[in-house]
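Q: What structure does this chain adopt?
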Amino acid sequence: MELEKLAFVRPVEGVAAFSTTRGEVDGRNPYSGVNLCDYVGDDALRVLDARIMLAMQLGVDLDAVVMPRQTHSCNVAVIDTHFMDSDIDRQEQALEGVDALVTTLPGVVIGVNTADCVPIVLADEAAGVIAVAHAGWRGTVGRIARAVVEEMCHHGARVECIQASMGPSICQDCFEVGDEVVEAFEKARFDLDAIVTRDASTGKAHIDLRAANREVLVAAGVPAGNVVLSQHCSRCEHGRFFSARRLGIDSGRTFTGIYRK
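A:
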């Protein structure tokens, strides 16, 4: 399994972050390649095989790879010893409707699944706190990145020490949206001049989700110089990363994870 390493502005000792890549792709199958998401219509055994493969590659137990069932919410769950000691039913309940995870546990891989939305990994090396978030346009409007930063600080992180890095997601040129989406960002008091452009030929709006999430992180207190934006567009590079805009909703997802070794 080939992983795309995610870099922070400064190396974070003992922490690794990555996004999966699709690998070998069958153009007739929108799930083909490596898909770890079990609620998008893929074959359950294929998903399980992919999860086992990732766990083996990272050198962790399968149950140490934790991912939520995302619903474009701004809900954050903490993965602690109580969660890890719970039975599978309680774990699934705790992960339902969650779009971000925070942990201080070493050896636990926390991650989210995306197919154009922005995955964000965060870390405070000194405090030993790591996090991951899934920020689609709804989560961005709801400022999920701020919620994650606040939860990290509840567990000992210092906001000025937090570093963030974004994984593969749709670029502004590809992210055409309706005016109702622009209005949602305007009502949420985003700087539209910084994140919205109009296509001269179509008049359609295009939003820069990465820049919008950087705005949220900086407003939450994370230094602007500590935020890394991805240069990979999921829609442009749909042979390498999954893209719902290119492949349809019934397709695989890119898994972006972070863990303390």
